[in-house]
Amino acid sequence: MIKTAARLIEATSLVVCGLLIAATMIIGALDVVLGLGFNHYIAGKVELSEVMIAAATFLALPGVTWHATHIRVDIVSRNFRGWFRVFGDVVVTVVALATCAFFSYTSWLAFESSWAKTETAQGLLPVPVYPVKFAAFAAFAICGLIAIVQFLRLVVKHRSHKKIV
């Protein structure tokens, strides 16, 4: 059930992410065509593009975290073995959880503040900012849940193997 919910959340967030990126490209292309062809540029294109790219970035984050496809520089720890490797993996997972918890909390506070004062992007087009701040909160909260699952996997894996290679 957890895997099904995770897959649904991931698929939905990636579809919305893709739609936002496509919309950003369409707005950019339309702006160039309208500007060069008719000398009429799209008002607020920069604000719209900024909001959509930011939201797309945060919506992609849980999928990247779930599949552990972050860019990783592993110079030292690849040589670790046994309990030292497990300890290193646990430390990394706990730090990831703490980071996600901190960013979830701060992005929730930013969302609440933005929502309360109906904050908009400053520019030609008053685009509301609170949806992006909520997307950031949701992404970090989901990543925190993923970190908990990864931590539990490490614990179960460690207990099920008497000798860790």
UniProtKB/TrEMBL annotation:
**Keyword hit for Membrane:** yes
Q: Any coiled-coil ranges, and where?
A: none
Q: Quick check: keyword Protein transport in the entry?
A: no
Tripartite ATP-independent periplasmic transporters DctQ component domain boundaries = 25-155
In terms of domain of life, where is this protein from? Bacteria
Membrane-topology descriptor: Multi-pass membrane protein
Q: Which InterPro entries match?
A: DctQ, TRAP_DctQ
The record's principal subcellular location, in a coarse class, is membrane
Q: Which UniProt keywords apply?
A: Cell inner membrane, Cell membrane, Membrane, Transmembrane, Transmembrane helix, Transport
Subcellular compartments: Cell inner membrane
Q: What are the TM regions of this chain, as residue ranges?
A: 12-39, 51-71, 83-105, 134-156
Q: What does this protein do?
A: Part of the tripartite ATP-independent periplasmic (TRAP) transport system.
> Which family does the record claim for this protein?
Belongs to the TRAP transporter small permease family.
User: What binding partners and quaternary form does the record give?
Assistant: The complex comprises the extracytoplasmic solute receptor protein and the two transmembrane proteins.
Q: What protein name does the entry list?
A: TRAP transporter small permease protein
The organism encoding this protein is Tistrella arctica
